[in-house]
């Protein structure tokens, strides 16, 4: 059993951020499972973005989203968020998905390479390594 006292330090902002991102992804998934419920999707988006701010900080989040090469992805992502808030969830999620893929395109090869190194299944690890190696880091 875990006991909490008044003398324990508060969790770090990274832990809070990971929790917010996790809840945001949960609400996004749950909103999609419930036939694109716009309230759950909007709540998930807000939690995801606030968790991202807690994890990497406000300045880094702002500079990540508003770099010149990433403005197209940012506009689609935030435009999709606004469309979801206006209660057009399917169109908004499509716009957000395109913006998300455009924004995080450079991270996919790294993530696939990491998953390939963890997988002990021979065919799966070879497939993930091929997908991870095919992308460019530009």
TrEMBL record:
Q: What do the Gene Ontology cellular component annotations say?
A: cytosol; endoplasmic reticulum; Golgi membrane
Location comes to: Golgi apparatus membrane
Asked whether the UniProt record includes Transmembrane helix among its keywords, one would answer: yes
Coarsely, its chief localization is Golgi
Q: How does it sit in the membrane?
A: Multi-pass membrane protein
Q: Which family does it belong to?
A: Belongs to the GOT1 family.
According to UniProt, the name of this protein is Vesicle transport protein GOT1A
Organism of provenance: Pipra filicauda (Wire-tailed manakin)
């Amino acid at each position: 059993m875990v006991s909490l006292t008044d003398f324990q330090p508060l969790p770090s902002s990274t832990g809070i951020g990971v929790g917010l991102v996790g809840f945001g992804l949960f609400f996004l998934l749950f909103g999609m499972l419930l036939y694109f419920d716009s309230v759950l999707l909007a709540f998930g988006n807000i939690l995801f973005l606030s968790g991202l701010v807690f994890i990497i900080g406000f300045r880094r989040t702002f500079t990540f989203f508003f770099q010149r090469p990433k403005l197209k992805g940012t506009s689609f992502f935030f435009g999709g968020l606004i469309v979801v808030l206006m209660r057009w969830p399917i169109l908004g999620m499509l716009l957000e998905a395109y913006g998300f893929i455009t924004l995080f395109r450079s991270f996919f090869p790294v993530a696939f390479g990491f998953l390939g190194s963890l997988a002990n299944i021979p065919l799966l690890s070879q497939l993930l390594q091929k997908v991870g190696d095919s992308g460019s880091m530009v």
